Backbone:
């Protein structure tokens, strides 16, 4: 029951790199990917900063060798790029050899095309091909097609900013229950006017670089990204003599049941999620070596999450940091992005710095790790918290 | 492994289905290619101030979940798992059109907040003050089946005792127009009774919410035992029959054990062949029923198929209106539900009398 599920591959594309190696290089060299938005025409341009992948859609289409008549949303293209890297990194050459599925998280889905052609859909033939790319499951269907996954379990989760963490959780349970031998799990979200303006109306977008866990934090930077892990059963790992990158050791999901968009003052949902994850992993709080916090740099999140962490870890607080200052908040993809970073931390025995931090929050004395730190790591805990009260925790470990 | 039971359910559909004491006793006729839900009195269940803020899908989901919870006579659950293929269309449309029409100015957050796919599950949790596991699946025609599979795994492993599972879909005005433009909606009026013979492309679009309390302990008024759920992203037409047979085999059920099959025919001339080939061959002598001529097509309408199957298992009656053929079935013990949408996202749900 407490045995972890093997992770044998990973792939990522984010504002700080087009693959795992580039992301790692940026993380250890403190290179953040936060800029003004270039690929979307928006009147908010001078008022916000974003974590944008600088390739325009035409470049992504060329990279993926898609035909001109394709109807890929940007979310789908980012997803395919990251999922393909994950499959390659797991050295999978014959996807059909084992029962393989996909569980992906997204919140934006094909909204980028819908907002572009909203009224044109009614009158213009050419953009109508994108009508069917709108729904959230479309990007996952396309990733499956690109990977050659057929006649299998392919599904999509949308629980706002915890979507990808939940995809990892479901994937681990599908492997444990024997439903699948292998599953690609993660998430993808592109930037859109819809989310830029949505978060703007909530007044939680920073007009400068986001500063997680800082007293003077001004809000989040939206980001776009995709990341996927390959989870494989012990049977496959053994039969194929697979190198295991890390294990999904524990997971927990709870609802804050407080407010549709805000987190409760004491972080009840996040506390429950961390408790459940520790229980599934059969670990004590003191066994956790590093916490990759959700840390969006909004006033509400960092206070609520910080209090929840204090409730769990008390005086045995391990190093913690948010990597959102590098990538921005990549919404549904965030849990997968930070899963890749957690695994990199385990592989390299390194804790990534929480950039832009200056002043401790007045409510408590939690100080994030602000410099790159070498430390022998056995376990990393990663939080993802979202709208709708959705709170998720995943624990990654070196040992099964 | 524990067994899994459907202990209670609730359906808000285009028919009068929200009263659990009734079973398609009176049928509402429609002739338009887009049909709305036959609404219960939402005020009975939701405070008027709260109801005013809620779009249709949220209202339907919240009320259907309350009816199901009431019938199961429980106050809370160990997980809330919803499926919605299109999500909160009404608020999404409001926010996108406001962005475009006003060039990103004068926007208010309400419709954005309520546009996220997990709004319904979040609102149900808020209403129940339920801090348990909370998931939303958003994968087209298998959104509900994904939720059901998740629930089933947790109940089998005894990670949960009672789980609220449901599917919900609302119609958005613009999205409907857009789907008409690409012929996914039938071009002309069609009476429901003529739907299968319409010989036209597209389906009759609809909305609704179907919720269930599934448990690993059988209540006395249990509807059905859930034996298996499986979904497929792709399935070639010519492989459906053999895939059904291997699915049944894996669950130790023979083809001959299937007393009744619930099919997802929606009258789309391009895709009903997936079902018709079964009616003409492996299920030729099996009692066949259909339901989309009563409640239309939407991404989670297959949950209505499960509702119908469960109701037939419990009452041991088959409403005449859903029969495709008539085999004079004396006892209904095992039912298979099969659904797909536009040739993709196929699902099998296997149920037994409990």
Residues:
């Amino acid at each position: 029951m407490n045995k972890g599920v093997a992770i044998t591959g990973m792939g990522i594309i984010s504002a700080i790199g087009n693959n795992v190696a580039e992301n790692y290089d940026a993380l250890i060299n403190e290179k953040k990917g936060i800029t003004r938005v270039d690929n979307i025409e928006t009147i908010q341009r001078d008022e916000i900063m974003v974590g944008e992948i600088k390739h325009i859609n035409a470049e992504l289409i060329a990279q993926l060798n898609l035909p001109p008549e394709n109807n890929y949303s940007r979310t789908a293209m980012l997803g395919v790029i990251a999922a393909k890297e994950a499959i390659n990194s797991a050295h999978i050459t014959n996807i059909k050899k084992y029962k393989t599925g996909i569980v992906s998280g997204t919140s934006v889905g094909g909204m980028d095309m819908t907002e572009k052609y909203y009224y044109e859909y009614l009158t213009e033939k050419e953009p109508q091909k994108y009508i069917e790319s709108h729904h959230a499951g479309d990007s996952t269907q396309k990733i499956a097609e690109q990977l050659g996954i057929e006649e299998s379990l392919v599904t999509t989760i949308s629980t706002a900013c915890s979507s990808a963490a939940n995809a990892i959780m479901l994937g681990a349970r599908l492997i444990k229950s024997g439903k699948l031998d292998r599953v690609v799990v993660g998430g993808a979200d592109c930037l859109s006017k819809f989310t830029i303006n949505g978060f703007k109306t909530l007044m939680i977008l920073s007009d400068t670089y986001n500063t997680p866990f800082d007293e003077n934090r001004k809000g989040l930077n939206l980001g776009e990204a995709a990341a996927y892990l390959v989870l494989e059963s012990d049977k496959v790992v053994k039969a194929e003599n697979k190198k295991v990158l890390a294990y999904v050791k524990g997971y927990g999901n709870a609802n804050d049941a407080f407010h549709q968009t805000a987190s409760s003052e004491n972080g009840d949902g996040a506390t429950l999620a961390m408790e459940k994850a520790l229980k599934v992993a059969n670990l004590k709080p003191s066994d956790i070596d590093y916490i990759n916090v959700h840390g969006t740099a909004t006033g509400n999140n960092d206070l609520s999450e910080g209090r929840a962490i204090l409730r769990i870890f008390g005086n045995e607080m391990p190093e913690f940091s948010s990597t959102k200052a590098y990538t921005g908040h990549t919404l549904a993809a965030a849990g997968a992005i930070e899963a890749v970073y957690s695994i990199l931390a385990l592989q390299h025995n390194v804790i990534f710095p929480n950039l832009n931090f200056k002043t401790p929050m007045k409510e408590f004395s939690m100080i994030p790790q602000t410099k790159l730190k070498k430390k022998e790591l056995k376990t990393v805990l990663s939080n993802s918290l979202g709208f709708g009260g959705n709170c998720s925790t995943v624990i990654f470990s070196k040992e099964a | 492994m524990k067994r899994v039971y459907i202990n209670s359910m609730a359906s808000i559909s285009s028919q009068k289905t929200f009263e659990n004491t009734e079973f398609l006793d009176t049928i509402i006729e429609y002739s338009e290619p887009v049909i709305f839900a036959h609404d219960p009195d939402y005020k009975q269940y939701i405070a008027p101030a709260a109801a005013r803020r809620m779009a249709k899908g949220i209202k339907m989901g919240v009320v259907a979940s309350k009816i199901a919870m009431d019938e199961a006579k429980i106050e809370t659950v160990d997980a809330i798992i919803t499926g919605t293929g299109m999500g909160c269309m009404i608020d999404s449309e409001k926010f996108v059109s406001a962005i475009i029409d006003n060039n990103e100015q004068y926007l208010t957050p309400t419709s954005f907040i309520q546009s996220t796919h997990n709004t319904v599950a979040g609102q149900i949790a808020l209403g129940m003050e339920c801090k348990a596991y909370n998931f939303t699946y958003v994968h087209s025609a298998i959104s509900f089946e994904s939720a059901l599979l998740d629930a089933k795994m947790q109940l089998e492993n005894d990670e949960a005792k009672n789980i609220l599972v449901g599917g919900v879909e609302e119609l958005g005005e613009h999205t409907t127009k857009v789907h008409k433009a690409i012929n996914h909606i039938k071009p002309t009026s069609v009476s429901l009774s003529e739907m299968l013979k319409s010989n036209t492309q597209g389906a009759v679009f609809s909305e609704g919410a179907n919720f269930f309390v599934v448990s690993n302990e059988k209540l006395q008024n249990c509807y059905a035992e859930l034996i298996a759920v499986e979904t497929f992203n792709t399935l070639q037409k010519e492989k459906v029959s053999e895939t059904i047979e291997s699915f049944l085999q894996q669950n130790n059920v023979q083809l001959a054990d299937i007393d009744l099959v619930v099919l997802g025919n929606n009258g789309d001339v391009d895709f009903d062949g997936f079902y018709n080939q079964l009616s003409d061959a492996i299920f030729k002598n099996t009692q066949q029923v259909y339901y989309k001529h009563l409640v239309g097509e939407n991404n989670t309408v297959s949950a209505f198929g499960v509702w119908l199957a469960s109701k037939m298992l419990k009452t041991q009656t088959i409403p005449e209106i859903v029969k495709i053929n008539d085999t004079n079935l004396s006892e209904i013990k095992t039912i298979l539900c099969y659904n797909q949408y536009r040739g993709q996202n196929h699902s099998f749900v296997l149920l037994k009398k409990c």
